[in-house]
Design goal:
The complex is a heterodimer. By secondary structure, chain A is an alpha+beta fold. Chain A contains four helices and five strands. Chain A has two domains: about 5-20 and about 55-145, Hotdog Thioesterase (Thiol Ester Dehydrase, Chain A, Roll); about 20-50, no CATH class. Chain A has a five-stranded antiparallel sheet with strand order 1-3-4-5-2. Chain A is elongated. Chain B is elongated, with a radius of gyration of 17 Å. In chain B, strands 1-3-4-5-2 form a five-stranded antiparallel sheet, covered by helices on one side. In chain B, about 25% of the residues lie in helices and about 30% in strands. By secondary structure, chain B is an alpha+beta fold. The chains are: A alpha+beta, B alpha+beta. The interface between A and B is large, with 35 and 43 residues.
Chain lengths: ~150, ~140
């Protein structure tokens, strides 16, 4: 079982720049062919100051730390035992290439079901841009499968 | 593109759907590209040897790749700025070779502070009709 003292744990804030090349690779990887997401001139013609970040992209730059799964290891959770259970985004302001995003995350809750065979980690993240404006709030539910069975 | 006009959006009622999106079959190359683009380098998605040692039959898709396809369907139909909330539950693992059919149906019209919002029920299913993702989005239409 994960130590419940991790509830409320705050991650060290980190920042990442939204790079146009990364957005183009994201568009390619997700089969996005609308040039607004890969061609700077098409984006500007559509009224954007630069390439816009697609709806789920803010999740990606939260991975731009030396080991985005370090918190799981710290809690004693092997990465092969986790599944992404749910993901939510609330949008407050647009994100474009050239922005610098700062991520502040915390473990909002940890609970278990099925006698501990499944545990749930709720991670909440606030994302601000270089003007200290809130651009998005993220909420992830990470499911941990304790394959050896639960223990009370 | 399947952009829905703002007049058509404003006229949408419960039960109406956005244009569907059907993906290409998800290949190992797709997963490698997505690992690089997303920064999610979890070996369960790209390293078959690691996945098998961990007891999985093979690598499987990042849940967030499937969610990105739902996002593509939304931004194809609506301006990015209309999107207020977007959330999903990952109901089942998406496998290599799966084709995802993404759909959005209006489930509610909400009047709030003089603005109209649509709540959309979202699903992504494979060719066999198995539900992979279910969720909803809230979009502003005026």
């Amino acid at each position: 079982m994960i130590d419940r003292r991790y509830i409320g744990h705050e991650f060290a804030p980190h920042s990442a720049r939204v790079e146009a090349g990364r957005l183009r690779l994201f568009a390619k990887a997700t089969g996005e062919t609308d040039p607004v997401f890969s061609d700077e001139s098409a984006a500007r013609a559509a009224g954007h100051p630069g390439l816009p970040a697609p709806p789920t992209f803010t999740f990606c730059l939260d991975m731009d730390v030396p080991d985005p799964f370090a918190y799981l290891a710290q809690m004693g959770v092997p990465v092969q035992n986790v599944l992404h259970g749910e993901q939510q985004f609330s949008y407050h302001a647009p994100v474009h290439a050239g922005d610098t995003l700062t991520y502040r995350s915390r473990i909002a809750d940890i609970y278990d079901k099925k006698g501990g065979a499944l545990e749930f980690i709720i991670k909440e993240t606030r994302v601000e841009n270089q003007h200290a404006a809130l651009v998005a709030e993220l909420r992830a539910v990470v499911v941990v499968r304790n394959l050896s069975g639960g223990q009370k | 593109m399947s952009r829905v006009s703002s007049a058509a959006l404003r006229a949408m009622k419960v039960g109406d759907e956005l244009p569907h999106l059907t993906t290409a079959p998800i290949s190992r190359l797709t997963l490698a590209l997505y690992a690089g683009a997303s920064g999610d380098h979890n070996p369960m998605h790209v390293d078959s040897d690691f996945a098998r040692l961990a007891g999985a039959p093979d690598v499987f898709a990042h849940g967030m790749l499937a969610m990105a396809y739902l996002g593509r369907m939304l931004t194809a139909a609506l301006p990015m700025s209309a999107l207020r909330q977007f959330g999903v539950r990952f109901a089942a693992v998406t496998q290599v070779g799966d084709v995802l059919n993404c759909r959005a149906e209006v489930t509610e019209r909400i009047e709030r502070d003089g603005h109209t919002l649509l709540k959309l029920g979202l699903t992504a299913t494979n060719a066999a009709g198995e539900l992979k993702l279910a969720g909803d989005a809230l979009v502003a239409i005026d």
